[in-house]
Design goal:
single chain, alpha+beta, four-stranded mixed beta sheet, 33 helices, disordered N terminus, TPR-like_helical_dom_sf
Length: about 1000
């Protein structure tokens, strides 16, 4: 063993560590000369080192000597590091302030001195240099040094090693991670283990920095490492009164529990973290932690397929101020990425793309933040969403750009997931050979992740299937079936598609028995499917199966089929109206004379696509648009405009309506009778008049923009012409008893809604009666809540002739002819929506209407006021319209039987805190329940049930717990979930009772 040579001694490196935290303070009077301490430890050695080499060798001997030592580990650990401050901004933290001795910090920060010291140690074979510029320490030399160092000096060097190694770990988003970072982790594990019992004696500021860095390090693979480092963080945090730190530890625990599949523990991990940060406005960093906790809660909800709650969790958080801090921008980035993924899972692909592109823009614009570690997942999400939107070429460009960036940076981790996503994009472009080549490259790699294997096998199966290679397809589909069984999200569309694909191959082979067994599994999946669960998990699977020409359910390639929303938002043909000559409009004999109109603000893209989201996400099965001839586009009168509309607009609308309830159809108004008929009608097989004719449920009129335009209402010289046309259309709407109508021109579509006005009987009785159509068969009556005031006495006149009623000025919305593209309300989408509203919802004329996106209670369940959709329970965020006079609803229910949020009337949102378990949900239910009053738990309440209960019915129920919130609930007599607590129940013989207005509920016990 060589002797340490003493040159130009520097005081203060080694410390007696009495106590240890004193040694960590620069310039402590307790520090002895580092070189003296080292020289004393190795007194009597036969040869010597320079001071720098002596210090470096003593330091290296307490690292993990069996592992490579990168120079970056030492230089980064001694350099200033970026950290979040309380304001949510980035500041630099000095190594000496973190407890690193100034002498050691100076050596490790000086690359020239450090290289010279390593070279000296290399000459004596104390260390050896590797080709990748890393070093290995001779284990025998290191062992002897550890033996000869005094215990207090050994402890000191171990503390210094821990400080250097943990500080070398990059913090996500504010420091770039490099491929060499993985070499730091064995040294971090070793220094934590050798210093474990003494970490509690580090200064609190150093401990806090250590804990936060360990949580940052938990993002690296694998599960064993994650558990180890989070355990170490918890140990180091003992005694620290820091709410921010304990919040992040809880989030890390939540993540580990979720990965391991223990979802109850994952939810419980966040119980002590409050969602309300109103009292923390000063500490922006803590507010960002609340946002990160919301992301973890959202991920928990995704894991149990409660997507509506997952989405709400994210939407509830926002930055404290208009200009967010840096740390809040990170949370916003993650929030937008998560929302994009959730919306893709739900089938809202355009909306998903908007959020993902927003996240991508954030990443591109930030100079002080780095998002590279999230680029793999963001790029895959972007590409998968574009594939679902039938834009795989765009997805391919994103993927190839990110793959090239990673190749240039030497980053191999994560490339396989990008490549399997690329293979799907190539498959969607029918480039099967290229897709297979990419898959085979991925398949040759060992250690693929579960998701990488699943997507690889699915894409390979599809390639073989579409090429009629049944043996190869069957092999890969079976492998995919094994893979998907390892995931939680296996009860939905992905598993079903794989099974149907296997069935298709079995059918082609004549293996009827096996096919029947597989179809039975499909039936079980269909029966247990959760309507608001994950429907579009694996990109491209939704294009794989359908109904074959022979009527059998099987696999087919429909990769180029757009959604209804995509078809309805395409650009209209360009109209040539140069030959149109202006003029006056027809005058209609009517009592309806509008004096103005009001904007119909609710009729917009967001509201309509939210109401009809699922239908708009379905495949559009119409034929392609006809080839446009130049003469088709010339419009010189209303007839030529109608020719153009019937050739290029109404076919797309009708194809999108073809498979909807009632088979609605847009066409000529002449098919609905009456002499003064409108140009347009929407009909449905569910609406037939007493004369056996189709009822016109949506009358419309065609006008030329040169003769009628919305702006005319504001021009005195044009007002009469504006009023003529509008009065004519409103008269059609009144005659056909429908609140909806439209006027379409070569420049705009104007949608209309009329509302009845209460007037005195005297004025109404002066009007002569006119005939109106009477509908039979499947006639639907308005069951909206009547919101108008009045006591219903004879002081108000009401009759059955809408042509004689008084009306408020109509509501209107204008959709330009040129409107097109994503998130834009187009003429086709507006017409489709209006026809859907008239067919499936309530279209009768009333004194006022509920909000378009709202629900009412019908006695047996909930009915949507616009789409007519029904469900047993409200989903998260659904708006329930509660009427003070409940019996003003048609079929109104006793208040006690109706799940309520309030008895005060108005709009009530389903309580977002009620997240239900997977098997609790029916038809489009995201998991809401009735919120009951909460009280303190009282297990010893012994009140006897008296005779006042004798007229009530006794119903036995079972108390359950919500999966996410863990609140108690039971099912009442109507089958509605009602939140409850122990304090509300009275202890009786054999169990507990709760008295309702009509029922007494009995339960034997409460869940633990």
């Amino acid at each position: 063993m060589p002797q340490f040579r003493r040159t130009s001694p520097r005081p203060g490196l080694a410390s007696t560590c009495r106590p240890l935290h004193t040694a960590a303070q620069a310039g402590s009077p307790r520090k002895a000369s580092s070189i003296a301490a080292v020289s004393e430890s190795f007194h009597g050695s036969s040869s010597g080192y320079s001071e720098d080499a002596s210090i470096l060798l003593a330091f290296l001997s307490v690292l993990a000597v069996s592992e490579k030592v990168p120079l970056d580990l030492l230089s980064r650990g001694a350099a200033p590091r970026r950290r979040w401050n309380m304001r949510g901004e980035i500041e630099e933290a000095d190594a000496v302030a973190a407890g690193l001795a100034p002498e050691l910090c100076s050596l490790l920060s000086d690359s020239s001195r450090l290289n010279d010291a390593f070279y000296e140690l290399e000459l004596s074979s104390a260390v050896s240099k590797n080709r990748d510029d890393t070093y290995n320490v001779d284990e025998t030399v290191a062992s002897r040094i550890n033996e000869r160092l005094l215990p207090e000096n050994l402890l000191f060097f171990r503390s210094q090693a821990l400080i250097v190694v943990y500080r070398a770990i990059p913090w996500k988003y504010i420091e770039p991670a490099t491929p060499i970072t993985k070499l730091f982790l064995p040294h971090l594990r070793h220094t934590l283990q050798t210093f474990h019992e003494n970490s509690m004696y580090l200064p609190s500021g150093v401990r806090a920095d250590l804990v936060l860095t360990l949580l940052e390090a938990s993002r690296f693979p694998n599960m064993a490492w994650k558990c180890f480092v989070v355990d170490q963080a918890e140990h180091a945090a003992l005694g620290l009164k820091d709410q921010y730190i304990h919040s992040l530890i809880a989030q890390s625990r939540c993540l580990l529990n979720r990965i391991s599949g223990t979802m109850n523990q994952a939810s419980n991990s966040l119980d002590d973290i409050g969602e309300d940060t109103a009292s923390m406005t000063i500490d922006i960093r803590m507010h960002s932690a609340a946002g990160q906790a919301s992301i973890q809660r959202s991920l928990n909800c995704i894991q149990v397929e409660d997507l509506s709650t997952a989405k709400r969790m994210l939407e509830d958080w926002s930055p404290l101020h208009r200009i967010p801090s840096s740390i809040e921008r990170v949370v916003e980035f993650r929030k937008n990425t998560m929302l994009g993924r959730i919306l893709r899972y739900q089938g809202a692909f355009r909306e998903s793309l908007t959020y993902l592109e927003r996240a991508q823009t954030t990443a591109a614009q930030e100079n002080d933040l780095t998002f590279y570690e999230d680029f793999r997942d963001l790029t895959c999400d972007l590409a998968d969403t574009l594939r679902e939107l039938n834009e795989p070429a765009s997805g391919e460009r994103h993927l190839r750009t990110e793959i090239a960036r990673r190749d240039q940076s030497g980053i191999s981790i994560g490339k396989s997931l990008l490549q399997v996503s690329l293979a799907e994009a190539l498959f969607a472009q029918t480039r099967y050979r290229e897709a297979e080549s990419v898959c085979l490259e991925v398949e040759s790699r060992p250690g693929l992740l579960k998701l990488e294997r699943l997507r690889l096998h699915i894409t390979m199966a599809k390639i073989h299937h579409v090429q009629s290679n049944n043996d190869g397809a069957f092999l890969y589909w079976n492998e995919a079936m094994k893979d998907i069984a390892k995931f939680h999200m296996t009860g939905g569309r992905a598993t079903r598609t794989i099974l149907l694909s296997i069935c298709d191959i079995l059918r082609s082979r004549g293996q009827t028995k096996l096919m029947t067994d597989s179809m039975d599994q499909v039936a079980l999946l269909d029966a247990g499917a959760k309507p608001e669960g994950v429907e579009y998990w694996i990109a491209g699977l939704r294009h794989c199966h359908g109904v074959k020409e022979d009527g059998a359910i099987g696999w087919k390639d429909t990769r180029n089929m757009p959604t209804l929303l995509e078809a309805l938002t395409k650009r209209n043909v360009a109209v040539n109206s140069q030959a149109v000559v202006g003029g006056s409009n027809t005058t209609t004999e009517t009592y309806i004379e509008p004096g103005g109109w009001r904007t119909w603000d609710e009729f917009n893209y967001d509201t309509l696509t939210r109401i009809f989201r699922r239908k708009l996400a379905s495949e559009y099965r119409g034929s392609s648009e006809p080839r446009v001839l130049e003469l088709d586009l010339i419009v010189n009168n209303e007839e030529t405009l109608e020719d153009l509309l019937r050739r290029f607009v109404s076919p797309c609308v009708n194809y999108a309506l073809e498979h909807q309830q009632g088979h609605p159809h847009l066409g000529r108004g002449s098919r609905c009778g009456f002499e003064d008929r409108p140009d347009w009608s929407a009909i449905s097989t569910e609406y037939i008049t007493e004369h056996g004719q189709f009822a016109n449920i949506l009358p419309g009129d065609t006008k030329l923009d040169a003769k009628w335009s919305p702006w005319m209402s504001e021009d005195m010289g044009s007002f009469n012409e504006w009023q003529k046309v509008l009065a004519q259309e409103l008269t059609y709407m009144a005659r056909y008893r429908t609140r909806y109508g439209f006027i379409i021109t070569d420049a705009n579509l104007v949608v209309l809604r009329i509302t009845r006005e209460l007037i005195g009987a005297g004025l109404a009785q002066t009007r002569p009666r006119r005939e109106a159509a009477v509908f039979v068969g499947h006639q639907r009556h308005s069951s909206d809540v009547t919101m108008g005031s009045g006591d219903g006495s004879s002081s108000f006149y009401s009759d059955d002739s809408p042509l004689e009623w008084s009306y408020h000025d109509p509501e209107y919305a204008v959709i330009p002819w040129d409107a097109h593209g994503k998130e834009v309300l187009t003429i086709k989408l507006a017409l489709w929506s209006l026809i859907m509203m008239a067919t499936s919802g309530n279209r009768g004329i009333d004194y006022s209407y509920p909000p378009l996106d709202s629900w009412r209670y019908s006695g047996e369940g909930y009915v949507h006021n616009t789409s007519g959709a029904t469900k047993a329970e409200l989903s998260q965020g659904d708006h329930l319209l509660v009427e003070p006079n409940v019996m003003s609803w048609e079929g109104g229910q006793d208040v006690d039987d109706m799940p309520q949020s309030t008895h005060d009337g108005g709009i009530s949102s389903a309580d977002p805190s009620h997240a239900c378990q997977r098997d609790e949900v029916e038809a489009s239910v995201g998991g809401s329940s009735r919120q009951a009053a909460q009280g303190p738990d009282d297990d010893d309440q012994k009140t006897e049930v008296g005779s006042s209960h004798r007229h009530h019915k006794r119903k036995k129920v079972r108390i359950e717990k919500h999966l996410v919130t863990r609140k108690l609930y039971y099912l009442n007599a109507n089958g509605d979930k009602v939140d409850t607590s122990r304090a509300q129940w009275t202890k009786v013989d054999g169990g507990y009772e709760l008295k309702g207005r009509k029922n007494i509920y009995f339960t034997e016990q409460f869940p633990h």
